[in-house]
Amino acid sequence: MALEDLFKVVKDRSKADTKPKTDAKTKKPAAGVEIPKGLLFKCPRCGTVVYRDDFERNKSVCSSCNYHARIGYRERLEMTVDKGTFVELDPGLASLNPIEFPGYEDKIAELQASCGMKEAVITGTCKIHKYNAVIGIMDSNFMMASMGSVVGEKITRAFEYATEHKLPVVLFTASGGARMQEGIISLMQMAKTSGAIARHSEAGQLYVTVMTDPTTGGVTASFASLGDIIIAEPKVLIGFAGRRVIEGTIKQKLPDDFQSAEFMLENGFVDMIVERKYLRPTLSKIFRTHNYTRAEEYKGGAGA
Asked: Is 193 helix (H, G, I), strand (E, B) or coil?
């Protein structure tokens, strides 16, 4: 992308009266020239800079390296479920302060106001290409989608609902791990969610995990890794402990692609890597393969 083109966009969008000045030697914007906030997106994987509008039109996927960037639960719902079919489960559940962590209640209230959601996961019933399903979406905008008591409770209840109504579960995972502000109570969610998933499996129902960026810590060590089929988006980070912690423990240098979705696929940790634009039809095929039925042939919609 030429700087001259960028300067033209800056001029047009800011409605400036004069052309932005550049340094004659460096060709960089002169002091005082500001690029409008949100105009550009820089890929955290390859460093490519593109216009944000173009990036979002491409489903928030880098056109250079195919990195699938983090998106909110609203965008995820729009891309995944049939329009108008999502009905939220347990919308009123919200975190308290079980271990009286200083400032925790204020932080939760701030995030609830800015993110438009009560907690880091939203669950509900929906249709995906006319297949009835239960869906859960973790949103990294809410405290890095860390797993606290409400996250564990909502996921547990979602699986219990799916078990009772004989429905498959699709869970989009994205988390920095257990929530330190809730101490041991957050770690207890690992066992609680795993138990609900086991009962769902024993009832003969399907669970599909879709790992997004990043899926780490206690979430990876519990419900994220228990799917009957584990899907990952391209280039995303998947792991338990961080690279530096592991290298310091084993005293070895890890591969450059360590904990990437591609590394996990090669080593059997995930079953397939699916691009965002192909996810809906892929889920539809999985449901059909596992003998779930839909009321009528689905027509239209993104990914159809």
From this structure: helix
8 Å CB contact between 55 and 42: no
Beta-carbon contacts of 7 under 8 Å, excluding residues fewer than 6 positions away, are: 19, 20, 22, 29
Cα separation, 291 vs 186, in Å, equals 36
* Domain ranges (residues) in the chain: 3-57, 73-289
Domain range 73-289, CATH architecture: Alpha-Beta Complex (3.90)
Integer CA distances (angstroms), 166 to 128, 145, 202, in order: 15, 28, 11
Provide the token pair at 279: 């996810």
Q: What is the pTM of this model?
A: 0.84
> What is the chain's pLDDT, residue by residue, as a tens digit (304 residues)?
454 455 455 445 444 444 445 555 555 555 555 667 788 999 988 899 999 999 999 999 999 999 899 999 999 999 999 999 999 999 999 999 999 999 999 999 999 999 999 999 999 999 999 999 999 999 999 999 999 999 999 999 999 999 999 999 999 999 999 999 999 999 999 999 999 999 999 999 999 999 999 999 999 999 999 999 999 999 999 999 988 999 999 999 999 899 999 999 999 999 999 999 999 999 999 999 999 998 665 555 444 4
Alpha-carbon dihedral sign for residues 52, 54, 57, 58: negative
